Amino acid sequence: HQKSSISQRWSFFDDHLASRMKREIFLRNRLDTALENEEFRLVFHPIVRASDTAVVAFEALLRWQLDGENIAPHEFIGLAEQTGRIRQIGYWVLQKSCLEIRMLTELYGSISVCVNVSVVQFQDLSFASTIEEMIRYYGIEARFLHIEITESVFSGDKENLFFTIKHLQSLGIKVSIDDFGTGYSSLSVMQDLNVNIVKIDKSFIDKLDLNGMTIVAAVMSISANMGYKVVAEGVETAEQAEKLTKAGVHYLQGYLYERPLELHQVSGFIQKNREQMAH
Ligand code: C2E
Ligand code: MG
Ligand code: MG
Ligand code: MG
């Protein structure tokens, strides 16, 4: 009796695992044709200046619509990294982001686009020269392109990492550390990496109690000394925004201001934002 229930549980576990693996195999295969089938699009999430909520940048976020279903980045980015397909997908993301930078700067002046780059792409020795060519090809100003990397880039060869970051910065591109604080070596990242921007992860912004505010204050103090600008990710309430602004955080991003926007909604958002500024 006992034995059969255990084996039942095991078979449930097997079924669960098997269906998860089936799903992964399915998605991995479909990722191979997703670009040519035009299943990807970018959405744009505003980043505002804390002092006056003027929009200063948009983060480009990848969306995959497969047979009418939206697949979340956390479900497919990892798979695309495993197969190496992320290189082509990431290249496409950069191309589309450069086009958007051109459109935004022509119409609205000084607005940046922040692009998430996978550790797999970033470790390619030719990454920075590819970006250099792209900037020339699209005729955009490098300072409007921000590259977001996570602390996971630290797992690879450090020398190449530093070289790539320096090369990008010498072009005028800004480099951000994304999801800051969630990696395994945040303080070494602070010490060793010469980035331009630190994005404090949403998990910290979610709990701005006394301890949480102490952590934010510490990040602000280190960043001030290192010359980093600080962005808070995942700001959802006015109370969070007020606390973060008081703590000196430079930029805020989150659902409080807007959800990620479709391409055609971006202009309307900027116009509305600028009208609010004028009043
Ligand atoms: P991320 O770069 O940290 O992006 C922030 C994520 O948090 C986005 O989710 C965004 O929609 C969400 N978010 C922002 N503000 C709020 C908020 O106030 N509340 C809540 N609940 N969520 C908020 P998304 O678009 O699902 O992206 C998840 C992750 O996927 C990104 O995290 C990034 O690591 C990765 N990703 C997205 N696009 C790309 C891409 O083009 N290339 C690569 N390599 N990774 C990407
Ligand atoms: Mg990001
Ligand atoms: Mg992030
Ligand atoms: Mg995050």
Automatic annotation (TrEMBL):
UniProt source species: Rheinheimera tangshanensis
Domain of life: Bacteria
Domain EAL positions: 24-274
Coiled-coil stretches noted in the UniProt entry, renumbered to this chain: none
First and last residues shown, out of full length: 339 to 617 of 617
Signal sequence coordinates: none
Name recorded for this polypeptide: Bifunctional diguanylate cyclase/phosphodiesterase
